[in-house]
């Protein structure tokens, strides 16, 4: 929001929330119906394609978002090396408003202008006119409009909203108040309207011009430099008609320079070119990929978890382990992604965080939790994890933490397999279990006299039970195998605190995997269930308490237990 919001700041459909796209329903229905029932010679392809092309533009923007966030995490060729705040992500969540706005205007324009009907697929003269009108009037008028928007009166009421984002993302390019978008559309309508009234417009000129605007907008705000220097060395004049990401990034950090839209020529003419433009461009190109100090190696959980990655949709990433109705419509894509990852896929970087002087990265094994349940997948999974460890070693990371199923005892014995295979490894492989043990122990009152161990035991539960016995708390188990394993870990003095067979009178339960409903029903009222597994047990008792611990928080990319242990 601008510092002093002016009139027409908010979008008219803001009260509709996520249902704003319903506005287009009458036009979508009418254009589709007309295209189907009309005689082939009378079908208006341009009218019919308005909505599909809007979806294509949204896909194009989303690809840029994902690419930018991935490159930001890697750090290579990054321009402004600062973090993006959550407030900015929330503020820019309405980036599709301008596409909706364009769609409404195109539908209205088609119905009001007879010349807009029956546009051909291609006309060379229309493409040339569009290019010339953009390079001339559009770029020139935008330059002066942009400078006017930086006047304190308009800046405080409108343009400051856009400049709230110092570190830009591709979608920052379209985050403006509604009034600004009206002005921008009037500018971009110059070539569009001119070609329509002169009957030189075509579907290609319209679609191509919009694609050019979207591409250049996203390019200028992506915050990583990738335009090769050789292009400007071979064709020096390009620097006047094509800007770079670093060129426009300087406008967001310096504010009073580099006003041009996509063609810097007007900044050269009127003396507003930033003096550090060339130096920033070259410095950004040379910036190396950031090496991680700590790597957290996680994996996908459910098939729908691909939509919760931070590389994708921010609205979904902010609500992990949740589902919405429109995700069911994505099942063809979801299923295809499962099949692809089943047979092919390499570990990829999903996010980077900085904690004081430590660089923390989260890497994802492209496999789903269900795939870890099949023994015949073990060799493939271990190979992927092993390759990730060696890659982290090569990048000089100091610590790699194994998340969730990547540390399963049945798979690699909590990482022990890789340490034995590569005894010369300098990187430390951890699983975060010591932190979980500490948190669970601190959550159990010291005056507690008895704790019951329930469910399938694991490394964490054994460590907790051992520590409890050593501090004098009775640990009850109902299974002989567990009792025998625990007894081997205890000193003779502590063995007296291990009880088998016990009873279900304990008020504190350590719940592991496979603790079934029948066992939970045997607990006393107001008992406390503390999960010590990767996934929480079902809450089957309303008269008992269920505590959350880091052992069962997922996905680990959101709560990085192992990295916290290192810190």
Characteristic terms for this protein:
3 domains; six-stranded parallel sheet; Leucine Aminopeptidase, subunit E, domain 1; alpha/beta; 567 residues; single chain; 9% strand; 11 strands; 25 helices
List the uncertain runs: 551-567
The dominant shape is elongated
Number of strands: 11
| Amino- and carboxy-terminal Cα gap | 36 Å
Estimated share of beta-strand residues: 5-15%
- Secondary-structure-based class equals alpha/beta
Largest sheet: 6 strands, parallel
Cross-sheet strand order for the largest sheet: 8-7-6-9-10-11
Radius of gyration: 30 Å
Helix content range: 40-55%
- In round numbers, the mean pLDDT is 90
Total discrete domains: 3
Work out the helix count: 25
Membrane topology: Multi-pass membrane protein
Family: Belongs to the sterol desaturase family.
InterPro entries: CER1-like_C, Fatty_acid_hydroxylase, Sterol_Desaturase_Related
GO molecular function, one term: monooxygenase activity
Helix and strand arrangement:
Layout: H1 25-37, H2 45-48, H3 50-74, H4 86-91, H5 97-112, H6 124-149, H7 152-157, H8 178-197, H9 203-221, H10 229-234, H11 238-241, H12 245-254, H13 265-270, H14 277-286, E1 294-299, H15 314-317, H16 325-328, H17 331-343, E2 348-355, E3 358-365, H18 378-394, E4 399-402, H19 409-412, H20 416-421, E5 428-430, H21 433-443, E6 450-454, H22 459-470, E7 474-477, H23 480-489, E8 498-499, E9 508-511, H24 517-520, E10 528-531, E11 545-546, H25 561-566
Parallel strand pairs: 1-3, 1-4, 4-5, 6-7, 6-9, 7-8, 9-10, 10-11
Antiparallel strand pairs: 2-3
Helix pairs in contact: 3-5, 3-9, 6-8, 6-9, 12-14, 21-22
